Amino acid sequence: MANGTSIEWTEATWNPTTGCDRVSTGCDNCYALTLSKRLKAMGAAKYQNDGDPRTSGPGFGVTVHPNSLDIPYTWPTSKLVFVNSMSDLFHAKVPIAFVRDVFDVMRDTPQHTYQVLTKRSRRLRLLAEKLDWPDNVWMGVSVENEDVLVRIDDLRGIPAKVKFLSCEPLLGPLTGMDITGIDWVIAGGESGHKHRPMDPRWVIEIRDICTAADVAFFFKQWGGHTPKAGGRELEGALWDEMPIRTRVS
Fold it and tell me: What are the CA-CA distances from residue 197 to residues 26, 200, 210, 230, 231 (Å)?
């Protein structure tokens, strides 16, 4: 069975690796870190490896799960799949051999479309030429503020069929962001009791950049104490645009 998800821009999650470490300010209130601590306390087998308390936490040590590689083969219908919602496939502690194993599964299951998201764009760029990129893999980077715009430059040269940005949690303006070669942009505010506020002008600016460049734009949420607190409308409308998706029956 696929793991259901409340993430608006995907249909299922698949976690062949779990765990991560903070690398930028977008990680400060990481939902996966909080959830891993809870899952460890519940005895979940995947979340018993603790990470470095300075950058990670209980149950959030980077761990590969070879026994999870077969999961996509078991799904009876095609799905849009977020890969590693609880980790980062391009973390330095994930061996390239295992990254290749994940790519082999994605290539072997062309009926599914896979969304891979990383904050580690430099390693992505370095490994890209060593990987065989199937057309059903969408590759994205997180861009939470102007400090990490270089991640877009790293992504631009990756030979993925679809390239996307996740500007969530959006923590500052992205004025002048260059989305040449990018196919899709997601934007959203931070949720949770420690959420940081998002200025509507930041979102409108991103939407306008996408509209001018004819790039699909998806507005996920305003953010707040709960994911649904602020709603999803932007200037009275829902923005649920997606890049072209090809499925193989």
Answer: 13, 9, 22, 11, 14
Whole-prediction pTM: 0.94
How far apart are alpha carbons 138 and 119 in whole angstroms? 15
Distance CA 48, CA 41 (A): 9
The number of distinct structural domains making up the chain is 1
Separation CA 144–CA 165 (nearest Å): 10
Cα angle 44-48-51, degrees, rounded to a multiple of 5:
135
Q: Residue 61 domain-assigned? A: no
**Contact 187/218 with Cβ under 8 angstroms?**
yes
Q: Taking the CB of residue 91, how many other CB atoms lie within 10 A of it?
A: 19
Percent of the chain with pLDDT over 90: 90
Average pLDDT, the chain: 94
140 lies in a domain? Answer: yes
Q: Is the dihedral of CA 13, 19, 21, 25 positive or negative?
A: positive
Between CA 238 and CA 234 the distance in angstroms is: 6
Q: What is the pLDDT of residue 249?
A: 35
Specify the CATH number for the domain of residue 96: 3.20.20
